[in-house]
Amino acid sequence: MTDRTTPTLDGITPVPQSPAGIRAGRRRIIESIRALRRLLNKRGAFETADRRRLNREARDRDRAETAHTGELHRIEAQRARQQHSLTLDLNSLDGKREQQETQALAVLRRGFIERRLRNTPLTVSELNGFGTGLIRDLAAQGIRTAADFTGVTWDRSPNGEGGNVLYIHRADGHRIHVNGIGQHRGRPLTEWRQAALARAEARAPHTLPPDERHRVSEIIEAERTRLREESAKATRAAETARAEADRHHAEALERLTTTERDAARLAAERRAEFDTMAEQLLALQRELSAHIDRHGDAGLRVRRAQRRALRPIPAAPTLSAVPSPRSPVDPARTAGVAAPSPSLGDRARLGWLLPILYFGFTTVVGVGELGDNTAPLAVMIASRLLALAITLELLRLWLPRVRRRSPGPMPAGIGWQSTGVFLTLAAAGMFADEKSDVFAAACAVSVLAALLLLAGTGHRIGKAQGGQDTDTTPSA
Q1: Least confident interval from 57-66, 180-189, 268-277
Q2: 468 in helix, strand or coil?
Q3: Is residue 320 predicted with pLDDT exceeding 70?
Q4: What is the pLDDT of residues 149-176, one digit of tens each?
Q5: For the segment 239-276, what is each residue's pLDDT rounded down to a tens digit?
Q6: Please, are residues 325 and 270 in contact by the beta-carbon 8 Å criterion?
Q7: What is residue 206's predicted lDDT score, i.e. its pLDDT?
């Protein structure tokens, strides 16, 4: 017999309760359980958003590390280029010293030869066959010494008459013709200048004087000192740039760490609220069970509501990298770890596009309607509706899981279910084929399709209750 009394505040005097009061009290407990369940149902969306947050934080850290590494590589490459160029310049200084000494010696010899030629005047005694008049005519044309002309050539006369004449090339690039100087006088003039040039070259210095050599050495050493200073300056600039890059990287990581720490704190507080609501829900379920044991059945209307209220609490889809604040934490695992390293998660495979495209195509063309076959109207409608339903279901499951911001594996058993639907459509097409005798094969395919559908459904329900989802390779 059911006891319809409740203890008073002092726990001594039992007070009988009416059936209406019992039902009201039970409804109050059930409504409280419903309200808590509605709040707990938001935990899945919260965990999904928190996973996206962790993925976003991981991407931000990867970007910061990549940018820092790229900046260091750029600084090192620039420093290496500068050092290589300066090293080549330093190594070429010895060759540059010899080049400058050679150039200085050439300038010194050229100046000495020029002076010697200018100090060698044209005289009657030096040139056989030249009289005072010709010497005076040459001087009038600007040729007084061996340095005033470079040689002689034969060419047409200035007026174009009389054949070729002898031209004397002055040092400034002009050429002149002096009447009375032909081939018999041009050869002695050329030989006289060549002899004067040979004497000047023989007496010209063949080595640099010590003061000139010292001047070239000073120039080379000054260039060497400048290059070494530039090398040291490039090294210091690279070190400064690296230190600046490290500072910016540390500041960026500090900002990311602060943001992550605040977000993790808020997430932990939110998880604690969900855990508290779960404990409250368990307490209310225990209270409802005690109320049922104490007062028995409260009527048909309350019976279904109390069965729904006593359903087990679904497992919280928490991430392994983010433990619940109320769950025990292994200190050996967390020792020396500053913060959890979020994982980007598994994404659904692109191979699921094949069954999606196949079922979408079947939605348009149906089964058993290719060629000359005409399927019954019921098969035409049912096959299209079934193909459309599985297409929408696969798209609903696959699209959110293939995105970078919300990756996740496909639910377990969906591959078996897709294969079962594929075989079901194939069997329907075989049954609708009136020209081939495939009834036995169609029956076998139908049985296999039913087994796959049952196995996939059972596997999916079992994994959903256990809170585990695994990605399965599509067989259809």
Answers
A1: 180-189
A2: coil
A3: no
A4: 888 887 777 766 666 778 888 888 888 8
A5: 999 999 999 999 999 999 999 999 999 999 999 999 99
A6: no
A7: 80
Q: What is the pLDDT of residues 77-121, one digit of tens each?
A: 999 999 999 888 888 887 877 777 778 878 888 888 888 888 888
- The two tokens of residue 428 are 């329907």
Q: For residue 418, what are its two tokens?
A: 């897709």
pTM of the predicted protein model: 0.46
Structural contact between residues 427 and 445, judged by C-beta atoms closer than 8 angstroms: yes
Pick the closest to residue 201 from 116, 107, 100 (CA basis): 116
- Residues contacting 471, CB < 8 A, separation 6+: 346, 348, 349, 409, 410
Scanning 296-376, the segments in alpha helix (DSSP H) are 300-309, 331-334, 353-365
Q: pLDDT tens, 21-47?
A: 888 888 888 888 888 888 888 888 999
Residue at token pair 């609903």: 396
Question: Is the distance from CB of 169 to CB of 153 less than 8 angstroms?
Answer: yes
Q: List, for residues 408-467, the tens digit of each pLDDT value.
A: 788 888 888 889 888 888 888 787 776 667 778 888 888 898 898 888 888 878 766 655
Q: Which pair of tokens denotes residue 230?
A: 């530039």
CA gap 409, 36 in Å, rounded: 29
Q: How many CB atoms lie within 10 A of CB 242?
A: 15
Identify which of 291, 231, 255, 213 has the alpha carbon closest to the alpha carbon of residue 21. 291
Q: What angle do CA 111, 115, 117 make, to 5 degrees?
A: 115
Cα 66 to Cα 55: distance, rounded to the nearest angstrom? 16
Q: Which is nearest to 398 in space by CA: 415, 376, 422?
A: 415
Cα-Cα-Cα-Cα dihedral of 260, 263, 267, 268, to 10°? 60
For 308, counting Cβ atoms within 10 Å of its Cβ (0-12 exposed, 13-18 middle, 19+ buried), the class is exposed
Beta-strand runs (E) in 53-148 = none
Question: Using an 8 Å Cβ cutoff, are 322 and 334 in contact?
Answer: no
**Cα radius of gyration (the chain):** 53
DSSP 355-417: HHHHHHHHHHH-SS-STT----HHHHHHHHHHHHHHHHHHHHHHHHHHSSSS--PPPTTHHHH
